[in-house]
């Protein structure tokens, strides 16, 4: 996501790097480039205008820090403005004082509402809540069944009208679900409503009727980010027809431009609260404007990476690994393997590396990362004797040949792995010596 904009902006900044100070003409030229970058990313025109004029004003103003060079100053300003346009602070869900908290989903058909209902339910369940999914989409054939499948996968209960009653009244189902939730002690109710392929009055009326019947704590407007500028038009229509408190962007994985994400907040005045990035239930997270800006500018998203690690590993495991990392000296090939397998548990390597600073420019290489490489490395290490793993220096030519035979790889691959291990070990020692993590961005405040 955001590849187009990210590439463009990165090249704008790199052309500033050699400048000692920025003249007004430099600033104008840079702002023109930023404007083109935003337009290419399909950002709505009023948003582009505001964005560029803020950047220009600030770049010309005297507020900029003397500690930063001109390129860094512009990056900082653009970063701040991106954060602002994406909504500033992370907006979290508001929970009702008297449960259940009622969350209603609205949006066009195909926006990803039903999938999102499952993702949100799973996410909330993991945080210790007991959500109830409610099937109030009685229009689309199979919608109820689809929600039931999603609910099962998410491990949450689904409230739906009796089978054979498919023409039932969605307003009544939604209303009834609140009592049902209370009886069964669900603290959150997520209502999936019907969508249409296009905006129409009947759709709006039904959504508004459900809203009036259940008085939701949060109405979330679900929109497919891939439809670009249309997302903004649809958002405006729903804003007028139903009203909503927050936006959920879906299919961000397929949206290289990011125009919807960058426009919707500014145009509707409502924050983006969640983002969906794939078809699987776990491809979902709260939306953090600052982290998203950081990713767009290829400054990495270390916070998300850390959170993902915390979610994946229990504390003991993490503490044990951290201990190894700090000492460096005791770091063996067994630890190397263990560390690699731990990292793999966090998700596809490509996604993880994509969150590291500076990796955006290496996108092509990232796409070639072969997950099977890890299996080969694991096979090589497992073909070593415990003594070899603890003391890899002893791995001479004949040992290399034996290990290669045992793991079905070439002798060169074994040799390369050992070299990589020594490099990792050296890095650990350096880190332990307080030299900082190589590759972390410096120079930016
Ligand atoms: P609804 O009509 O709004 O309920 O939409 P659905 O939940 O049925 O989703 C429509 C299609 O979009 C399905 O094929 C989903 O698998 C797919 N989908 C939903 N969310 C995402 C996402 O974040 N990324 C991708 N790539 N596909 C998604």
What is the gist of this entry?
This protein is an alpha/beta fold and 445 residues long. It folds into 3 domains: 3-85, Four Helix Bundle (Hemerythrin (Met), subunit A), CATH 1.20.120.140; 101-299, P-loop containing nucleotide triphosphate hydrolases (Rossmann fold), CATH 3.40.50; 314-432, Signal recognition particle, SRP54 subunit, M-domain (434 Repressor (Amino-terminal Domain)).
Ligand kinds:
guanosine-5'-diphosphate
Radius of gyration: 26 Å
Please tally the helical runs, counting DSSP H or I stretches of 4 or more residues: 20
> Looking at this structure, what is the CATH superfamily of the largest domain?
P-loop containing nucleotide triphosphate hydrolases
Low-pLDDT segments: 434-445
Strand content: 5-15%
User: What's the level 1 CATH class of the largest domain?
Assistant: Alpha Beta
The domain tally reads 3
| H-E order | HHHHEHEHEHEHEHEHEEHHHHHHHHHH
Query: What is the 3D form?
Result: flat
> For the residues shown, what is the average pLDDT?
83
Largest β-sheet summary: 8 strands, mixed
User: Could you say what the CATH topology of the largest domain is called?
Assistant: Rossmann fold
Query: What is the helix fraction of residues, given as a range?
Result: 55-70%
Structural class: alpha/beta
According to DSSP, the number of beta strands is 8
The spatial strand order of the largest sheet comes to 3-2-4-1-5-6-7-8
CATH architectural name of the largest domain: 3-Layer(aba) Sandwich
Intertermini distance? 25 Å
GO molecular function: 7S RNA binding; GTP binding; GTPase activity
Catalytic activity: GTP + H2O = GDP + phosphate + H(+)
GO biological process, one term: SRP-dependent cotranslational protein targeting to membrane
Pfam family, one: SRP54
